[in-house]
Amino acid sequence: MTDPDRTRLAFQLAGVSVAIAARTILSEVTLSLRTGRILGVLGGNGAGKTTLMQVLSGERSISQGTVRVLGETVPFHERATWRRIGIVPQDTALYDELTVREQLLLFASVYGLARTDAALMAIIDLLGLAPVSSTRADRLSGGMRRRVVIARALLHQPELLLVDEPTLAVDADTRHLIWRHLRSQRDQGRTVVIATNYLEEARAVCDEVVVLRQGRLQRIENLDQLLERSGIILAARCTMAVREQLCQQLRSEQGVVRADPVPDGLELMVGESACADLGRLLSSIATISAWHRRAADLSDLLRFIEQAP
Questions:
Q1: What is the Cα–Cα distance from 57 to 77, expressed in whole angstroms?
Q2: How many whole angstroms separate alpha carbon 253 and alpha carbon 293?
Q3: What's the pLDDT band for 1 if we cut at 50, 70, 90?
Q4: Vertex 192, ends 187 and 197: CA angle to 5°?
Q5: Interacting residues of 45 by C-beta distance below 8 A, sequence separation 6+
Q6: What is the pLDDT of residue 308?
Q7: 142 to each of 90, 145, 308, how far by Cα in Å?
Q8: Does residue 58 contact residue 75 with C-beta atoms inside 8 Å?
């Protein structure tokens, strides 16, 4: 039987635009998400990701359209609605003179929560902060500061968690801990929205993915399938004369999505199955001093989406 809570909408945006000083930040965005899901919002810097998160939290006024979050129309008229939302901003601003435990005690009081050691230690343990619970914020590493900001947003057990760049500038261990915790929030029936620049993060955490590009939104039905279609990047080092010859020839080769000149050679986006054959082809028709392959990153994927028919 279907859980009725998971068929409800956590939020619904209809034709939402945001303009600031005659500059359009979001353009006619229509988007909804069921409760108990993780949505990834992908996009480069300046794409409008942070603005979208601010619209969902009620922090940013819209120029047109309608926004409903947790059943309430934005702007919220009930203070209780704010307490149902947790926000993790991009920056890791903390009170430097306070310890980790003191930071959380302060925000617990802001939310009107009971100041119980058991509850605080539970969230501290959850995010691996116990070893630094008595450490001042100005002595924490970047990864630990990020964990504190997330712990702060989870104190009041929000129904909707908005996380802007969850693993920005953190180490690999912290990255995986944060991913695991975001998935655990979803498993408990909560809804999570993350804005990220990292394809790996979206693949590891998200149930659904949308892309923002210059304020316009595109839903991605299946990120893995899209990445399979876009393929991998094959970079070859060669002279300028060879580069021009290869670019012209390879653009018509089967399996080549694009062929672009770069300062020290050329860069190809190719289908996974075509990679080995193209490597041999490159070596047979021109002198290639070196070549290597890498996975497509967000910039590559955005270009692929833009060029796709």
A1: 13
A2: 18
A3: very low
A4: 125
A5: 197
A6: 64
A7: 12, 5, 39
A8: yes
Please count the residues of the chain. 309
Phi, psi of 82 (to 5 degrees): -60, -35
The torsion region of residue 204 among left (phi > 0), alpha (psi -120 to 50) and beta comes to alpha
Which residue type sits at 194?
A: I
Amino acid at 189: G
Tokens of 2: 């279907």
Element (H, E) at 103: helix 100-110
Q: Which residues contact 268 (CB under 8 A, 6 or more apart)?
A: 233, 234, 235, 236, 250, 256, 257, 258, 259, 260, 278
b/e 263-296 (16+ beta carbons within 10 angstroms → b): eebbbbbbbeebbeebbebbeeebebeebebeeb
CA distance 215 to 284: 44
Which domains are present in the chain? 36-63+78-220 (3.40.50.300), 227-307 (3.30.70)
CB 293 within 8 A of CB 286: no
The 10s digit of each residue's pLDDT in 161-201 is 999 999 988 888 889 999 999 999 999 999 999 999 999 99
Q: How many CB atoms lie within 10 A of CB 11?
A: 24
Query: Which DSSP state fits 89?
Result: -
The burial class, CB within 10 Å (0-12 / 13-18 / 19+), for 89 is middle
